[in-house]
Design a protein that fits this description.
The chain is an alpha/beta fold. The longest helix has 33 residues.
């Protein structure tokens, strides 16, 4: 009765509720869906509580969906368990993204370390050993290149000086007087001279004076090309198949002292028939558009960056790569301005005696306090240079104990030069005397001789870049005393004087910044570790192009860096060539006084504790040393370029269609092995390697062969003329060829007839021997070599000298053997004339006189060799063909 009276809408609502519960549960994961079904089906009160809790969730279903998608993505990369791990470690929601990123990146790093062979080895010790092996191999390569050059030159030298052009050179070298003029000597001996001395170092003027007009070279190289006039260079340019022009357009131009006033062309009108006016051969080559320019940017000379900073900023647009010195401050480095109370004698001697006296005092002070460093003095004018020379002589008179320092060596000696003559020189310390200044009335004019002339700033550039360690600028006025000038060169002089007095701040350029920031988190960690140990660290040491990642200041000398630390970061990987990264830069820095320590990123990541222990040991060791102790720099080796011979750093332009920089790599510098030892050998001593004494067959051996062959064939005692003795004759002839081959037929006739005791070879005997030789040829036991006979495969690249038992006539010497002697005599004594060659060949074979038969045979051989291209005959004599 109750069931029948129930409201049917209740069942409908119950069914709807059941469907809604199932629909809601269907939006969840199976495990959570089952749990939700139980909670919703428990009771309406429990269901209301669950639904209220879901409704109060601020994230809603979107967050759950996003979470599910994220877990799906993590599952694809096998990282779906990571969120649970982070939850168990109680990582907060704010730190969750960073922790997730770190975990992913760590996994990626581990994968790269495990799979990328370029990252192995990872331990610092092993990687340092790898770098050391590379450095050794690279230095061996340099040494091998030197040895190859020496060997190549040695192989070209004449080995016979008794004939040919070498004989002329030898006679001239042994003379005491009445020498042949150089031009005439080179005309006569041109071929041998180029073999003995393949490289000529000459000025354009001496090229015209000493070299014949048709004397040519494979390559012509101009150095200091900015100082060579085009008209002076032409006589050298046309002599080369290739041209290399090296110079710096920002340094001294050719001197115009002797130029005629009418030579200048001040007109601006274009003239089709006019000659283009180029200041130097360097300008002409760069303007041609044909030759490729290659700037050399590394600067090696300056051991302190302040020495080159002014030129790099004002003249080179900061394009040079310079290296920081290990000394930041000190009395023997950098640039210093010294004020003199001098008076310029305007209108009189045009010098400044008081300033010259100040310079002399600084010269004496230099040799008294730092005699181990070389010194040079540069004056802006010739008159001031002469005044300084006089003042130095007076100062030396009071200090005779310093006289031994005033040497005149071209590379290291003391010098006093004016501005026009100093290009190409360099010294450890340079004293620059301005000379010009206030006159006796105290008036200061903006006239500074060569500086005021066109391109005077280039002369200034040369003057201020001659020092390797220290530049002392002595002037009788301050840079600020000069008014601004419309003359660009005078304005540069004013700025340089201000720079010398006030330092790099005048340039408004990037200087060593105590607050410089490291370039990577890796470097930040290292710096934090060092500072945590109590050391003062300067990041990013260096101001132009190349920086050391960080340097530790010496606690006992604030102006000195105790240790440079390099990390394999951006600066390390900026070099395209391993030679730059792992040898050249390190060698340059060590030569500048740096102690270096490298930290490898892989080692810091994997073995940080060991890397920190090694770092601490190195830092403690160098900081415990005396900061002022003199350390000997490691040998710079055979490929060192401590000097660039006049170019301001390596900013010279090299113009050459074939020259390659190999990824920006400049000329090699320090760090190579010692130059291979050069040994002097005597020419023409001992027998020629292509000759040996003639070996004549023993007559008793021939008789034994005759008898043994006869017994074997049952023909004992047969005469040579007997037709049945053909096999025996062939065996005897074969023995002659095997011992004496290659051998002419006439010699075989003689040896065979003597084996039978015959006094002469009749026609019958000759026919019998000829038949035997033809049989041997058919059987392949002997072969023809020209007109001679020889055994197959026999090496015939030698000639035979006469012995006491055997002296051959010309007809008995194979043609190939005679030609071999002729070729080798020409090869060992290039430039030999025909008559001398005939006598040398005759002397080789023991012929005392050149009879008609000998002369005709050898002359024919020479003609054959010339026709075949083995020899070349010219006015200078006979020469071997190229490549022979």
């Amino acid at each position: 009765m109750l069931a029948e009276s129930a409201d049917p809408s209740v069942a409908a609502r119950a069914g709807d509720w059941s469907r809604q519960r199932e629909s809601l549960a269907g939006h969840f994961e199976p495990e959570r869906a089952e749990e939700l079904r139980r909670e919703l089906a428990e009771s309406l009160t429990a269901a209301q509580s669950v639904l209220s809790r879901l409704d109060r969730d601020p994230f809603g279903p979107e967050a759950w969906t996003s979470c599910a998608e994220a877990l799906t993505l993590l599952r694809r990369y096998h990282l779906d368990g990571l969120p649970d791990q982070l939850v168990r470690r109680e990582v907060s929601a704010e730190d969750f993204p960073a922790a997730m990123e770190r975990a992913v990146l760590t996994a990626w790093v581990e994968h790269q370390l495990a799979t990328d062979q370029r990252l192995k080895p990872m331990r610092a010790v092993e990687r340092d050993q790898l770098v050391e092996r590379f450095q050794g191999a690279d230095q061996d390569l340099v040494a091998a290149a030197h040895a190859e050059v020496i060997a190549a030159c040695n192989s070209r030298r004449p080995r016979r000086t008794s004939v040919g052009q070498a004989a002329v050179l030898r006679r001239e070298s042994e003379k005491q007087r009445r020498h042949m003029p150089v031009r005439h000597l080179l005309q006569q001996t041109r071929d041998v001279v180029r073999l003995v001395k393949p490289c000529f170092m000459m000025s354009p003027l001496t090229v015209s004076q000493f070299l014949p007009p048709d004397f040519e070279f494979d390559v012509v190289v101009f150095d200091e090309a900015s100082q060579v006039l085009p008209q002076d260079a032409v006589n050298s340019v046309y002599r080369g198949k290739a041209l290399i022009v090296a110079g710096d357009q920002k340094q001294l131009p050719p001197t115009s002292f002797f130029a005629a006033a009418g030579d200048s062309d001040d007109g601006d009108d274009w003239d089709e028939d006019a000659t283009d006016g180029f200041e130097s051969i360097l300008d002409m080559c760069k303007a041609s558009g044909v030759l490729r320019g290659l700037p050399l940017r590394w600067h090696y000379r300056s051991r302190h960056e302040n020495l080159i900073a002014f030129s790099n900023h004002d003249f080179y647009d900061n394009s040079m790569v310079t290296f920081p010195g290990a000394l930041e401050q000190g009395p023997d480095i950098g640039v210093e301005f010294i004020k003199a109370d001098g008076v310029y004698d305007r209108g009189g001697s045009s010098d400044n005696p008081l300033e010259a006296t100040k310079v002399a005092q600084r010269v004496i002070h230099h040799f008294d306090t730092r005699p181990e460093h070389t010194l040079g003095v540069v004056a802006l004018s010739k008159a001031q240079a002469e005044a300084i020379e006089e003042a130095v002589q007076k100062a030396r008179a009071a200090r005779p104990d310093l006289d031994h320092h005033f040497t005149e060596g071209r590379l290291d000696g003391f010098f006093i030069k004016n501005l026009e003559t100093v290009q190409g020189d360099e010294r450890d310390v340079i004293i620059l005397s301005i000379g010009y200044g206030p006159d006796h009335r105290g008036k200061l004019l903006s006239t500074f001789g060569p500086i005021n002339r066109e391109g005077g700033w280039r002369r200034l550039n040369v003057a201020v870049t001659r020092a390797r360690r220290r530049m002392e600028v002595i002037a009788s006025f301050h840079g600020g005393d000069l008014p601004d000038s419309a003359n660009k060169s005078v304005q540069h002089l004013k700025r340089y004087l201000q720079y010398a007095q006030h330092g790099p701040a005048i340039l408004q350029t990037e200087a060593a910044d105590p607050d410089a920031a490291p370039e990577s988190p890796f470097e930040e960690e290292v710096i934090d570790v060092l500072r945590g140990w109590g050391y003062e660290v300067q990041p990013q040491v260096g101001v132009a192009g190349f920086r050391i990642d960080m340097a530790v200041r010496h606690p006992g000398a604030p102006g000195t860096y105790a240790l440079g630390i390099e990390c394999d970061g951006a600066m390390y990987h900026s070099s395209r060539a391993a030679r730059d990264r792992d040898r050249l830069r390190e060698a340059v820095l060590r030569d500048l006084g740096w102690r270096l320590h490298r930290i490898w990123g892989t080692d810091w990541y994997r073995n940080r504790r060991d890397a920190m222990a090694r770092l601490r040991a190195v830092v403690e060791a160098v900081c415990a040393e005396d900061p002022h102790a003199v350390r000997v720099a490691p040998p710079v080796g055979a490929d060192a370029m401590g000097s660039d011979r006049g170019n301001c750093g390596s900013t010279a332009e090299v113009v050459d269609g074939r020259l390659s920089a190999r990824g920006g790599e400049p000329v090699e510098v320090a760090g190579g092995p010692a130059v291979p030892k050069v040994e002097f050998v005597t020419v023409g001593v001992g027998p020629a390697p292509w000759s040996r004494p003639y070996q004549e067959v023993d007559p008793e051996l021939l008789a034994e062969v005759r008898d043994r062959s006869g017994r074997q064939r049952g023909m004992w005692g047969l005469e040579l003329q007997d037709p049945d003795a053909l096999d025996v004759v062939a065996d005897v002839a074969l023995c002659v060829v095997e011992v004496e081959g290659p051998v002419e037929k006439e010699v075989i006739y003689t040896r065979v007839r003597l084996a039978w005791g015959l006094g002469r070879a009749s026609q019958v005997v000759r026919d019998r021997i000829d038949r035997a030789l033809r049989r041997l040829l058919k059987q392949g036991k002997i072969v023809h070599v020209g007109t001679a006979y020889d055994r197959p495969g026999h090496d015939t690249e030698f000639a035979r000298t006469p012995t006491e038992r055997c002296a051959r006539r010309v007809a008995e010497v194979p043609v190939a053997e005679r030609q071999l002697v002729l070729r080798n005599v020409v090869d060992e004594g290039p430039g030999v004339h025909r008559e001398d060659l005939l006598r040398e060949a005759a002397r080789f074979f023991g012929w005392a006189r050149l009879g008609a038969d000998i002369r005709d045979a050898l002359t024919g051989d020479i003609d054959v060799l010339i026709a075949a291209g083995d020899l070349i005959e010219s006015e200078g004599g006979l020469m071997p063909a190229a490549g022979s």
